[in-house]
Amino acid sequence: MTIASFVETIDGVAAIPSLPRSHAVIADESDADRFVLALLRACADAVVVGAGTLRASPAGSWRADRPYPAVADALRELRRRRGRPEHPAVAIVTSRGSLDPSYPVLERGALVLTTERSATRLRASLPAAAEVVAVSAGDVVDPADALAVLRGRGHEILLSEGGPTLLGALLGRRLVDELFLTLSPLLAGRGEAQRLSLVEGAELLPGARLAGRLVSVRRSGDHLFLRYRLGQ
Ligand SMILES: NC(=O)c1ccc[n+]([C@@H]2O[C@H](COP(=O)([O-])OP(=O)(O)OC[C@H]3O[C@@H](n4cnc5c(N)ncnc54)[C@H](OP(=O)(O)O)[C@@H]3O)[C@@H](O)[C@H]2O)c1
Question: Which residues contact 9 (CB under 8 A, 6 or more apart)?
């Protein structure tokens, strides 16, 4: 199954690309949000992110023990009992292939899912630990094929942590089974500078109805934690 995890403000802003640590700012530095993220990563076989999210978090590891260290031991034990390796695999989706080879996640062996055109250049420029897979012949990576590559490697639970463009591509093809959405109590507003919503690059309404069935609502202080099953 494929799940997605996101946080957004009351007024629907999920990213402020010009702002470092935009995710943490939007989440209002919520401990509960970090806990949910850690738990989702601990349950995932592979975490999938778009290159924009990596470029916005160059030091990102997408490991379960990072967002909420106080429960790191318990999450490690959870993975061990489920017969999973210590950390979920990390997959980066890119078509342009504009990735800095010094990103730690690449040094640690991330999978890079890209187009045939970019694959050769990336293989030559990225650290040997990173594995580059040419998923699609065209200008973009077919998101269904990207997920199929991960399933072909035995990864059953896939967690997409964004960003909005990758989520748009996945939702446009109905490839997300569940959405874990944190609604932070903040209002972000919009001005001249670009701010992204949850879904970018895919127009759903009015032509394509995609609705969530609300399967769980939790609250921590003024934050809401919503879990939707998608696809109706
Ligand atoms: N609120 C949240 O929970 C949350 C979660 C994650 C990220 N964010 C924020 O989102 C912002 C980045 O937004 P974004 O929309 O640019 O993020 P993104 O979806 O991670 O990155 C977009 C890039 O990913 C690659 N990509 C996505 N779909 C692709 C496809 N089908 N085929 C090939 N490549 C594909 C492309 O990379 P190339 O350009 O390399 O081809 C594209 O430019 C950052 O500020 C980040 O902090 C917020």
Answer: 26, 183, 184, 186, 187, 188
Ligand 1 neighbourhood includes 17 CB (under 6 angstroms):
yes
With cut-offs at 50, 70 and 90, classify the pLDDT of residue 12. very high
- Please tell me the residue having the least CA distance from ligand 1 atom 9: 15
| Check whether domain 2-188+199-231 has CATH 3.40.430.10, yes or no | yes
- Length of the chain, please? 232
Q: Over 80: is that where the pLDDT of 167 sits? A: yes
The answer to whether 64 and 75 are in contact (CB under 8 A) is yes
Contact 51/93 with Cβ under 8 angstroms? Answer: yes
User: Is-above-0.90 flag for pTM?
Assistant: yes
Domain boundaries, given as residue ranges, for the chain = 2-188+199-231
Confirm or reject: Cβ of 200 under 6 Å from ligand 1: yes
